[in-house]
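Q: Focus on the shape:
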Amino acid sequence: MTEKTEILQLGADALRQQARRVDDFNCVKFHQLIATLSSIMLESNGVGIAAPQLGASWQIIIVASRPTLRYPQAVEMPPVVMVNPHYKILDESLIKDWEGCLSVPGIRALVPRYRALHVSYQNPQGVACQMQLQDFPARVFQHEFDHLQGLVYLDRVETNRDIVAETEFFKRIAA
């Protein structure tokens, strides 16, 4: 990865492909990609990012819920790199809330997501890990996990009326 790495935008073919499992945890490119994902996510005020957003077809996501300009009400949690993640639903309740995406700038939408999950993944050293996520961090995980399946959050919207311009979104949350 170079310093000129950019986040792919909606319409890029790589965003619509299923990502491959990571099998080589010693690969230099793998660790460089994780570092690049982290820095781009932070620079972009993101609360999560997935490898396909940088054109890398690997099952790697970072979940990093924290208050930002884009998500001022987000809860604080340290960034977690998740490789080859999967999950079980702990709470079948679907909660609609606002989402945006670094690959879909300028738009926000109300997206239904499960409230609580049990997540299993490998860390960057290949060690099996588990955690439970709920509310906003669970939402971020599901959003990033979708990228590994070739989906974007707009694919989950129930009606086009739930999609708004980001300028309108900021008016709504300021009210």
Observations:
- The longest helix spans residues 28-43.
- The first strand starts at residue 48 and ends at 50.
